[in-house]
Amino acid sequence: MTNSLPFLILVILSLMVLGFLMMTNRDQAGRIIVFWLFISGLAYVFEFLIFILGGSYEYDPAILSNQYNDSVLGSISSQAFSVPISLTFIAVKRLKFGWILVIIAFFYFIESWFVLVGIYEHFWWKSIYTSIFLLLGAYLSKKWWKRMADPGLEKLHFITLYFSLSVLTLSISWILSPLLDLYKIPLSLFSDEMRNSITGNSIYSWVCNYLYTLAIFYRPNNIVAFWITLLILMTLDYALIHFNFLAVRGVCGIITLPLFHIAMLLLGKKLFSWYGHALKKTAEH
């Protein structure tokens, strides 16, 4: 058995669960997608703190040549798919405590098996910690999903959009920076260069994502706001390059960042249209 197969199976099973959830709740499909991405965005923050900064564990799907990027890819399979989709299922289906415990027990078994076969290694982390955070996550997910139905909770919807878009921003920027090396935020916090690159890129992406979210949430159909936001982002990039906080590689690197910002603003607008449509329907009822 190759290392990558268990990770791939988990991702496929998770996507099947998501597909089932959307087919059985067609009227809420857009809201379900946004909620799944929102939970993924929160999971990315959690992973940044305990995995990237804290060095809690290591994945080994054996897909990418760089060991640290390979571990990050394993992390994405968990934090972008299996965990958030499970929490989304719990919230949308309003599962009772007993079923939540069954799902948590399943994750405990899978994590323990991953450790046993050597495709996942704990440093200071323990499987029981995962179970505790999943239990907390299930409780909070059910609360948040319920409150998302209220169109009047502006701050809640802004936060939801921010984190749902952030998982796309971070994932795409990881491909552009640590994987393709088109740009880099040079830091010297750790001995591993790739770990430094991912840390810097994550912080940069979260800042950019805040500006995307401001424009999309408050001025979703305003072309002037779109171009002003893009100008602010390009000015920020230029300042970071000027003060040696951002390095770009050749012509490809120079054109990558403006195109990246445009793509994320358009993706975010599409995401918000799904979400906004669901909110509008809720308000009408």
Automatic annotation (TrEMBL):
Transmembrane intervals: 6-25, 32-52, 72-92, 99-117, 123-140, 161-180, 200-217, 224-241, 247-267
Keywords: Membrane, Transmembrane, Transmembrane helix
Membrane among keywords: yes
Protein name: Uncharacterized protein
Native species: Rossellomorea marisflavi
